[in-house]
Design goal:
alpha+beta; five-stranded mixed beta sheet; 498 residues; 10 helices; five-stranded antiparallel beta sheet
Length: 498
């Protein structure tokens, strides 16, 4: 076989065929086990019935012998009556008469008794043991059951002729002191025939059952998978240009319903993510176009009227707009990296108290007279990237500096297993209905604010993404005056001193 050709597998690819095959194999194993148990039980019960028939026949033989009556040859079971002092059998039948009656008896003669055998029961007793029927030249089975050469369970009972009258002993052809033994052979032919017939019925019924079970499993799975096929067709029709298609949720309440609900939820999330991405691209293009338009207009005017242009002012405007473009590009690149959700490599233990104190001392407050203070009682350690923590805190301080009237307060506390950092300004605050919207990208609540002083609209979005990246949360805490942003991060143990 060519190595490039795919290997053929006996296991079918279709779910319907797999379910039918699995059901048939499982049913086959169960039916084989049940059939084996039925086979053994039928054989055991049939053997017990045969032994019971042999016991009744032995009882009839004993009664006949006690009455001095020689049993007839016609019998449903093989039997033989032998006696001490007698070479030939007293009586035989049921297949044992196929031996030559003029020859020696087939089954062994009993030992001589001087008294009647003990009788434990009120009626009579007998013995059961396996005996081999010998092969002899004088045996001709004819059309009957061939018993010669086989070993069979044999029931026998002894009778002492001393208890019989002389007439009865003479009628049986034995002496007055002889011991008679009546043998009845239990043949397995009836039990084997019944078991064989039962096995045949079980085999045919099992094959029919396997076919029916496989067919039922196949069509049941086929019917059950119809909603899945409908879901597949509808899902295949979802395109980037029209992501609003939804699958039909079955009203049955089974697993397919949960699948359809999950797929609809996934499609809704993808639709929402696609809409957010489109809106983000549109907003980013709009934000980039604004400084580019300003920069291009300034340069075109300067080039059109070079003798009237204030070139230092034009260069200042161009530099300011270029800085805006650079800041916006940096924010967009950072958001793109955060969207990949790449885990922070080799997290360090960062003291947020020291970081906040350093930013408080270095933050420039030249545009407006603002007071920036940091209140902390102890070091506050957290795992993460120091540069990302610095970007997060700087974004919060930048946002507070744009809206604060006079002061900005940074507070850091260790609470249970968390580090809680708040940045509170005394500005106009944020309406309650906008408490979550301000963390969206390119959102500015004050549309009239100058874009030169309003930022890019990405600072709080980046800050929240960085908080989530470090398994923390960033929320807006209600305050009567100003806005208060609350950052919660898992507390890390203090690093060991070297």
């Amino acid at each position: 076989m060519n190595a490039a050709e795919p290997r053929r597998r006996w296991w079918p690819r279709s779910v319907r065929a797999r379910a039918a095959l699995a059901a048939a194999v499982t049913a086959a194993v169960i039916l084989v086990g049940i059939g084996w148990w039925v086979h053994r039980e039928v054989y055991r019960q049939s053997t017990q019935i045969a032994e019971e028939q042999a016991r009744k026949h032995l009882l009839a033989l004993v009664d006949q012998l006690n009455e001095g009556v020689v049993p007839v040859r016609r019998s449903a079971v093989p039997y033989e009556v032998v006696a001490t002092g007698r070479r030939s059998a007293v009586a035989r039948g049921g297949g044992m008469d196929n031996f030559d009656p003029g020859t020696r008896h087939v089954l062994p003669a009993p030992s001589a008794l001087s008294a009647a055998p003990p009788d434990d029961n009120a009626a009579w007793s007998y013995t059961v043991r396996p005996i081999r029927i010998p092969l002899r030249r004088d045996y001709d089975p004819g059309n009957g059951f061939d018993v010669a050469g086989g070993t069979y369970p044999v029931l026998y009972a002894d009778i002492w002729a001393g208890e019989l009258s002389s007439d009865k002993a003479a009628a049986l052809g034995v002496t007055a002191d002889a011991t008679l033994r009546a043998y009845v052979v239990v043949l397995p032919d009836t039990a084997e025939a019944i078991t064989k017939t039962t096995d045949g019925l079980l085999l045919r019924a099992g094959l029919v059952s396997l076919v029916l079970i496989a067919a039922a499993a196949y069509f049941t799975v086929r019917i059950a998978l119809r909603p899945v096929e409908a879901i597949r067709v509808l899902t295949a029709s979802v395109t980037p240009n029209d992501p609003r298609e939804r699958v039909t949720v079955p009203a049955t309440g089974h697993e397919i319903t949960a699948l359809a609900t999950t797929i609809n939820s996934t499609l809704q999330r993808l639709d929402t993510a696609a809409a957010q991405q489109r809106r983000f691209v549109a907003d980013a293009a709009h934000e980039l176009r604004s400084p580019l338009t300003t920069l291009l207009a300034s340069l075109e005017v300067a080039l059109a009227y070079p003798e009237r242009t204030d070139w230092p002012a034009t260069a200042t405007t161009a530099a300011r707009q270029t800085r805006r473009l650079h800041a916006l590009a940096e924010d967009l690149l950072l958001l793109a990296r955060l969207d990949t959700r790449t885990p922070t490599a080799d997290p360090e233990t960062v003291d947020l108290t020291a970081l906040a104190s350093r930013l408080t001392e270095q933050y420039p407050l030249t545009e407006r007279p603002l007071t920036l203070t940091c209140d902390s009682t102890a070091p506050a350690h957290a795992h993460g990237n120091p540069d990302e923590y610095e970007r997060l805190l700087r974004n919060l301080i930048d946002n507070a500096a744009r809206h604060a009237a006079h002061r900005i307060q940074i507070t850091i506390r260790n609470q249970d297993a968390w580090v809680v950092l708040t940045v509170h300004d005394d500005g106009p605050g944020v309406p309650t209905e906008d408490a979550e919207r301000i963390f969206e990208r390119f959102v500015r609540l004050d549309d009239a604010r100058s874009r030169d002083h309003g930022g890019t609209g990405l600072g709080l979005a980046i800050a929240r993404d960085l908080a989530h990246r470090h398994r923390g949360t960033l929320t807006l805490t209600p305050r009567t005056l100003g806005a208060c942003f609350r950052l919660c991060l898992p507390q890390a143990p203090a690093p060991a001193e070297e």
